[in-house]
Design brief:
Helices cover 79% and strands 0% of the residues. By secondary structure, it is mostly helical. Keywords: Membrane, Transmembrane, Transmembrane helix.
Length: 467
Amino acid sequence: MTAPAALDRWGGVLMIGALAFSVPHEFTGAPIFSHLAAACAFGGLALFAPRVSRAARLFLVLGPLVLLAATITLPDWPDATLTALARGAFIAAFFTALTAIRSAAITDPGILDCGRFLAAQPPGRRYLALTLGGHLYGLVLMYGSIALLGALATENARQEPNPEIRGHRSRRMLVAVQRGFISTLPWSPLTFASAISLSVVPGATWAAALPLCAVSVALVSGIGWALDTLFKPRLSAPAPARGPAEGAWLSHLRPLYTLLALLGAAVATLHITTGVRVFGAVMAIVPLIALVWVTLQPGTRGARGATLARRAGAFATQEMPQLRSELSLLVMAAFIGTLGSALAEPLAARAGLDLTAVPTPLLLLAVFWLIPVTGQMGMNPILAVSLFGPLLPAPETLGISPALMVCTITSGWALSGATSPFTASVLLIANYGGVSPLRVGIGWNGTYALICGAALSLWILALAALA
């Protein structure tokens, strides 16, 4: 084994350690667990460093520079640093937990069958099916939903002999998958959008924000479906008639909605009975479900213990290292954003910047649009929200509920996921579509984003008026 490969393997093991220490911290609040989780998370990043992408390496270099600036300028830099380290460790642990359920899902034949069934729907309901599929798969697989359904959509489109129809079908199917995925961002407790937004808005809870965010989900999903229905591509010749996909929806989608029901019930039960926050319950429950799921898959009967040990070892030493660049970007974005916010706060105070003087509706719109706009400049939403979120006035000083602020941030996050050529969702769709990320973000989704942005802005203004 080469030295870099050995470092990767140990880096993956340390990410498991970050998760293992983060779970008891969520339940007890004991600082020692947070410190140990941070040591594992950032130790793992150090081991990953020699083989990460250029962008991830830039973040790994920028982090110590921000820390140096904080050490020089902030009197309370130790506390600010510990807060940033804890935020980064949480991201590492949360990512590891969600990757565990994705690892179990992608080897389940039933989950793959669900995806093939959705991709095989006739044109009249294919967009709606893939948007629904992108949403449901996104709840479990994160960006893996785009990888899975994107591959199946591309495979389906290639079977079309007419190149004109094939091009339109590929674009519409991939866009449907992407928009289904981003519609999870405003509300799902299994996304970084909710996790980070709730952590930077004082007094915010997931349950209180859910009704407001659900309307954002309906707007993002419904507008996409309406645009696809109203503006169908014009073909030079009539398209051939196609029959419906074989099989019943309930039977084909049973593995997916059964998993979601089990996951939701388990997380809700743990959250209600223990009082631990939803994201702590997710980190505790999801890996356990993944372990049990692996042992129940075909081919494990009679060797479940050996299969579980093999899969767990491969997850830590092979699958997690393959995500080293993504992990480095996400964790360092949280660290840099949190510590950068601590640096910016005294600068803003000395400059006389008083955001409470800005009319609340205008401030909310600025927050909403800031996320997709900075996304066009290459700023990851985790970095953007971690940076400016703590600088925002407390919701009660603005006369609004914390839920409204969370809805504003997560809605902007969803818009960035559709348009930013630097986000994983756009990059993956561009890869499957064989086009540039800019083409996907602005060309395929530009009109959609503007209409969604306008509708979401009106929704935010309406909520502000009713506050």
